[in-house]
Amino acid sequence: MSAPHVIVFANEKGGSGKSTSAVHVAVALLTLGHEVAAVDLDSRQRTTARYMENRADYARRKGLALAVPPVRVLEEGDEAGLAAAIEGAPRFLIVDTPGRDSALAVKAIARADTLVTPINDSFIDFDLIGQVDAETYKVKRPGFYAELVWKARQARAKADGGSVDWVVLRNRLSSLEARNRKRVGAALNELSKRIGFRVAPGLSERVIYRELFPRGLTLLDMAALEDVSVSHVAARAELRALVEALALPALMRAAA
Question: Which InterPro entries does the record match to this protein (predicted)?
Answer without folding.
Answer: DNA_Partitioning_ATPase, MipZ, P-loop_NTPase
